[in-house]
Amino acid sequence: MSSFWSAWIIVLTLATLVVLIWLLRWNMKNYTHIEEGQEMDHEFDGIVELNNPLPKWWTYLFWACFVWGFIYLALYPGLGNFNGLLDWKSSNQDVQSLEESRQAMEEAHEKGMIVEYDRAVRAAEEKYGPIFAAFAEQPIEELAKNEDALDVGQRLFLQNCAQCHGSNAMGGQGFPNLTDDDWLYGGEPSNIKTTLREGRQGNMPAFGEQFSDKEINELANYVASLSGRERDADLVEAGKANFAVCSACHGADGKGNQQLGAPNLTDDVWLYGGSINKIEETLKHGRNGVMPKWKNILGEDKIHVISAYVYSLSNDE
Hints:
- GO terms for molecular function: electron transfer activity; heme binding; iron ion binding; oxidoreductase activity.
- Component of the cbb3-type cytochrome c oxidase.
- It comes from Idiomarina loihiensis (strain ATCC BAA-735 / DSM 15497 / L2-TR).
- This is Cbb3-type cytochrome c oxidase subunit.
- 53% of the residues lie in helices and 6% in strands.
- It is mainly alpha-helical.
- Among the domains are: 138-201 and 292-313, Cytochrome c-like domain (Cytochrome Bc1 Complex, Chain D, domain 2, Orthogonal Bundle); 213-288, Cytochrome c-like domain (Cytochrome Bc1 Complex, Chain D, domain 2, Orthogonal Bundle), CATH 1.10.760.
- A two-stranded antiparallel ribbon has the order 1-2. A two-stranded parallel sheet has the order 3-4. The protein has a two-stranded antiparallel ribbon with strand order 5-6.
- Helix 9 crosses helix 10 (233-242) and helix 9 packs across helix 12 (276-285).
């Protein structure tokens, strides 16, 4: 905030308080020719107003609010750029990245500043850190059978993963279903944990410039036929000739490659939709799905617990 606007806010705030104090003082004195307790010169609907003083409890409460207001403005931020005598603030609101947030936390701690968010984070780490550390010592397969760990994992999932995969983890168009045992990069505990830690970058190339619309349609029909769907035999046969460009990732049999994150095209599970129009759209324009990396946000121990929860969704024996 610039010095001008800081000064403007300070003057406006203090002036408002001063005017309110004057107004209260003015209403506490009798400036009329009518003595206190006597009738005023007007009435309405049979009701006569008396010249009574303000109630004591009301005025005392008002004075207490003024005193508290000045104390608050002196101790806490609120007057422009003035940070208050306590040097307190709710959070490091000017940070723009996780790295900046960590640096700001360290600097505030070294300077003895009181940052409420930082205090809450440290308190949570002290209280819950040992619990997550104990969970992290257990293999994911065993942790997936621990009801307490699954409850914690579900909460973490709802907070961080449900925005894309849904609260029921069944995903949506462009976001994988985590409950059906169909995995792009593998559903083993180590694969799930790697996905959470490092993230994934999907890369389905666009073939709109390489193939004509007719060839795209033929190829889409062939891809649809791989999952057992009945399609026009001539279109399927024509599309099969161009499937060679797809087999580099999806394999000659179309069963995919988990090392590359290439989907199995034979199981009738479609990430972006399995209609001919959707398959054509994928072939023509490509797909570039992104799974963000969580290692710098959640840390290893929490990722371990979420991995166990995700693993449990398709391994509930």
